[in-house]
Structure formats: structure tokens, C-alpha cells
Design a protein that fits this description.
The protein has three helices and seven strands. The chain is an alpha+beta fold and 213 residues long. It has three domains: 60 residues, no CATH class; 58 residues, no CATH class; 78 residues, no CATH class.
Length: 213
């Protein structure tokens, strides 16, 4: 059993926290694969606010914070600038290789790519806007996905695909602005384990990232 509740940080005296009621010792599906506590290297459940082993408190990422907004938007601007340079260089070098007449094709193509790059960056700028909502339903759907088999080809050289059964975990949410949405996660049961009908979620619109309140 974990020593601390990863949601409210109180001592875990039983499987369910006496303070907030959350499952203090959730199944392995809830834990991140590549995130650990910086102090004790313990595995962390999704949305963990405290380390379940040492009790360290983590700062919850808040896109509405001006500092976080600035860092996010600066990264977008640098990314768009980098790809702009790459596109311009390619538009200049390609004609020198295949013939100067190619400029009439590369210049319009570069202009379209530049416009698309900056449009995507501007659309993802963090303004700190979010909407809260309520979980209305939790359910699963069984689907068949077509997945390519790595390093396997048919005798003709064509790629080989297999039909793979997949469980899709669906979280239906009614947002406070009146819209309804279904958050779908393939093979990730964490939401179903950690959420209940009636729980509140917050969706940050720029990155389409949500978290439990």
C-alpha cells in the first residue's frame, strides 16, 4: 500500500483515502510508464499531486499562469521560425539542383507551407482559456484496428497488416458552455479507474489537455 494519498497528500491508512475517498493504491494501468518522483524515483499515478511514497508535493501545470503561457508561446514561435527557415532554404536549393525553372513551383509551395506553419502556431497559442465540465458517462467500445507489423513484408514486398482487437475507453463530458464531448483513449484505462460520473474536469482549449479538478 502507498504511504500517502497521491491526490490530497494525507497519510494513507487504508486502501481508500479517509480525506478525499480516492483509491490510494490503484491498479498498474493508472501509473505513468516514464514519469517518476524526483526525490525517491517512485512511479506516479496520472494526475498525481503528491508522491505516493515520500509525500512530495508537485506543482500542477496551469496553462492560465502567465509564466507558463509565455514559455508555451515562445516555444511555438521558435518552432515556427525554425520550420520557416527550413522551408525557405529548401525552396532555394531545390531549383539549383533540378533547374531554375523550378522556382515557379517551389516559391508558391513554400508560401503555402509558411502560411500553414504560422497558422498552426497561432491557433495553438495559449491564452489561458479553459472550460470546466462534468463527467456524465463512462463506457468502453470494442474495435478492430488495422496495424502494420514491423519488419514484416509479404513475398511481393508489400506491407503486412493485422487486425488487432482494441478496447477504447470513452469518457462522456458535458462542458459548462453547453457542449458535449467524448474523450476516447485506446487501451488506456486510467480515466475509468480514476474518474466517476459526476466528477469535474477542466479542459485547456489551446492544447486540448484536460485534468481532474
Amino acid at each position: 500500500m502507498n504511504e500517502y494519498c497521491y491526490w490530497c497528500g494525507t497519510r494513507a491508512n487504508s486502501k481508500f483515502c479517509e480525506q478525499c475517498g480516492i483509491d490510494t493504491d490503484p491498479p498498474a494501468d493508472v501509473y505513468f510508464l516514464d514519469e517518476e518522483c524526483g526525490d525517491c524515483s517512485a512511479k506516479l499515478p496520472r494526475w498525481a499531486r503528491y508522491c505516493p511514497k515520500c509525500g512530495r508535493r508537485f506543482g500542477v501545470y496551469d496553462p492560465s499562469d502567465p509564466k507558463n503561457q509565455k514559455e508555451h508561446n515562445r516555444g511555438l514561435a521558435w518552432g515556427a521560425a525554425f520550420w520557416s527557415v527550413v522551408i525557405v532554404i529548401a525552396a532555394i536549393l531545390i531549383p539549383t539542383r533540378v533547374g531554375m525553372a523550378a522556382f515557379k513551383y517551389t516559391i508558391p509551395a513554400a508560401a503555402v507551407l509558411l502560411a500553414a506553419s504560422w497558422a498552426i502556431s497561432l491557433s495553438r497559442r495559449e491564452q489561458g482559456t479553459f472550460v470546466d465540465g462534468t463527467v456524465t458517462r463512462l463506457y468502453t467500445e470494442d474495435e478492430i484496428h488495422r496495424e502494420r507489423v514491423a519488419y514484416e513484408t509479404a513475398r511481393t514486398g508489400r506491407r503486412v497488416y493485422h487486425q488487432v482487437p482494441v478496447t477504447v475507453y470513452c469518457t462522456a463530458v458535458r462542458w459548462d458552455d453547453g457542449k458535449e464531448d467524448v474523450i476516447r483513449r485506446d487501451c488506456i484505462a486510467a480515466d475509468h479507474i480514476q474518474l466517476r460520473v459526476g466528477d469535474r474536469l477542466r479542459l485547456f482549449k489551446a492544447k486540448q489537455r484536460y485534468q481532474k479538478l
